[in-house]
Amino acid sequence: MGRIQAEDFAAGYLGGAASVIVGHPLDTVKARLQVGKGYGNTLNCIFTICKNENVTGFFKGMSFPLASIAVYNSVVFGVFSNTLRLLSQYRGKSTCQSSDLFDLTVASMLSGSLSVGIGGPVDLVKIRLQIQTQEIITGRRPWNTVYNGPIHCMNCILKQEGIAGMYRGAGAMLLRDIPGYCLYFIPYTFLCEWITSDQHRAPSSFCVWIAGGMAGALSWGTATPMDVIKSRLQADGVHSAKYKGVADCISQSYQNEGLRVFFKGITVNTVRGFLMSAAMFLTYELSLKAIKRTNME
């Protein structure tokens, strides 16, 4: 059996940082659309944020994801790549052979499961900081900042709800991420192989960018219904708590807003998924090559 390779974790860290920088503004729009009311559509949401909060409104809660999602992405890519490598070695496959669907599925599901351990608290704090200003937009009552920043937000949640509170919405996140990462890594791998004419040559940067973007758009687009539920469960509790769990959130959301509620933010989710994933995979692959080249010198 082979050993764990740290290069994948390091390259995943850099890829995660790149994805946050590229995708956070649209992530803020997505969160407002899914949790808030009165925005109408994506463009209206963008203009409303600009009008009420200026450009800085798109970057609310970014410092915490920038510091932590890089670590989260490091775990996801590191676990995926090393699991894939170990499975291939266990089954006696050559490193030159393409990964098959079974290996890719197992590695993707494992990555999705483990990602919630780190990603749950990160997403929770990010969502709370992104949506706490929605009161000024909906006009229900004067705006009142609940959290002064990520550390204050974490302290408030731990004080009020304990450790379990940091994993609010974890069930919905598992239901989103396990199939989501299958629709992320598997299409990316096959698209890279399909676009690259010479199967013995590494994919070009353009190929990685296109394949990564398409995989991200597919993954995030199809994950939107459960992403809506996850966002609502995580936002629940900023001012009041009304959901008892995943099933109750699905039921209340459907009864109050109909079937279309589960597709809120699907456009911005898909566009954001393309941009973030294109940046993530490209940075990951280029960083991995650079690290391996440095180690060989």
Commentary on this structure:
This protein has 297 residues and is an all-alpha fold. The chain has a single domain (7-296), classed as Mitochondrial carrier domain (Mitochondrial carrier fold). The chain has ten helices and no strands. Helix 1 packs antiparallel against helix 10 (266-296) and helix 3 (63-90) packs antiparallel against helix 4 (101-131). This is Solute carrier family 25 member 48. It is found in: Mitochondrion inner membrane.
Average pLDDT over all residues: 85
CATH superfamily heading: Mitochondrial carrier domain
Structural class from helices and strands?
A: mainly alpha
- Ranges where pLDDT stays below 50 over 5 or more residues in a row are 135-143
Helix content class? over 70%
> How much is the radius of gyration in Å?
20 Å
> Which descriptor suits the 3D outline?
globular
What distance lies between the first and last C-alpha atoms, to the nearest angstrom?
26 Å
Annotation, overall tally of beta strands: 0
Q: What is the CATH C-level name?
A: Mainly Alpha
- In this structure, how is the largest beta sheet organized? none
Question: Which terms would index this structure?
Answer:
297 residues, transmembrane, mitochondrion, 74% helix, Mitochondrial carrier fold, MCP_dom_sf, single chain, membrane, transmembrane helix, mainly alpha, globular
In a nutshell, what does this entry contain?
The protein is mostly helical and 297 residues long.
Write the layout of secondary structure elements.
Layout: H1 7-35, H2 42-53, H3 63-90, H4 101-131, H5 134-138, H6 150-165, H7 170-195, H8 205-235, H9 246-257, H10 266-296
